[in-house]
Amino acid sequence: MNLLVIGSGGREHAICQKLLHSRGVTNVFCAPGNDGMAQSGINCIAIPETDAKALIQFAQKEDISYTIVGPEIPLLEGIVDEFENAGLLAFGPSKKAALIEGSKDYAKQFMKKYQIPTAKSETFTDYNKAKAYLDEKGVPIVIKADGLAAGKGVAVAMTMPEATLALKEMMLQKRFGEASEKVVIEEFLEGEEFSLMAFVNGDEVYPMAIAKDHKRAYDGDKGPNTGGMGAYSPVSSISSAIEKEAIETILIPTAKGMKIEGRPFRGVLYAGLIATESGPKVIEFNARFGDPETQVVLPRLESDFAALILALLHNEKPDVRFQKEGLNLGVVLAAKGYPDAYEKGHILTGLEQISPEIGIYHAGTKRDEASNFISNGGRVLLLETSGATMKEARLHLYEEMKKLDNPDFFYRIDIGLKAE
Ligand code: AMP
Ligand code: GLY
Predict the structure, then answer these.
(1) Could you say which of 3.55.50.30, 3.30.300.30, 3.40.50.20, 3.30.43.10 is the CATH number of the domain covering 2-95?
(2) How far is C-alpha 259 from the geometric centre of its chain's CA atoms?
(3) Is the CB of 119 under 6 A from ligand 1?
(4) Is the pTM of this model over 0.85?
């Protein structure tokens, strides 16, 4: 099989890598990919992730067996529908089904209707009404832009001035453009967060190993929210009873509900969850693989990845098996300043010294004219390793991260620390 992956981040690097190691796979193409992927035998194609027409032409010309769509933007634009209309197989939700990620307001309404546990909330398009609700509810409180904001459209406000500022920025100053014309204001939930992804085909749900993301930019969960600064899988502090409850009360009813709504979901459903005192509750849904969760979850997949996706696309039962022993840990190297303004074009020193057994997933990197790897994004790359214990994995991985130390970049030193 020749396969195509759409996207250019660490998540897509991990997806491509796993496909390359699957049986019966000849070529893996990634559009647009990045120069780091090209180094590991992935064929990068210079087509933007949202250029559906050019991607379809490419898939037809190269006899692509199927395409996997990584990022949310092409999914929300309906790229899977376009591939299907052209008679091509593509793994990912339709435009209609991807709305569960594209609109937080839609996701909340859907969860209310199907009694899927989540924080209580109200949606507003009028600033004064939103402000009045805020004053009535008080803090702590959570304010979310309705639309996509690259993981940054959420303010968890502990004080009233913070809450008011966030609301003003979103609704009056349109900080996230159209995405924040509508806001969801929701109850603050307390508990441990975890990510539960599943392969979904209509009402069939095949859960993956659970993972833990680290969303805040700095150590000790301080600083602004980012796309994710590191992750590990599985999560020993979340019991299998909670995991089971989350599958039964959240994932399965969501898949069933989407089918009833005429938005049947085929792809990866990602539930961002909080284990509260009254059980797991949803903080967000994504309609795709998580980043950086994928970089620590996919290495744990024991069954054949390419065959698993093909089975789902053919409406057959896939073989989904994850390793039970040990854990995988990943730490992101980010550009100084991320998630706010940051510079690109800094040379990545030490990359050639990374030990061969470490997974290197490139995200924002490219090669300069002298063939050096330079930074080309906020999240630059992720290093990943497995270990029998968290202590062992952390020791090993942070020895490697040190090789990348450089004042132009930063990384959190406490990924997985609480799980030691
Ligand atoms: P999201 O982009 O919706 O995943 O939100 C980003 C982060 O904000 C989450 O990872 C949580 O840490 C936090 N968060 C979101 N919603 C809530 C909530 N209702 N209660 C407490 N924290 C939340
Ligand atoms: N790591 C969170 C996300 O992929 O949205």
Answers:
(1) 3.40.50.20
(2) 23
(3) yes
(4) yes
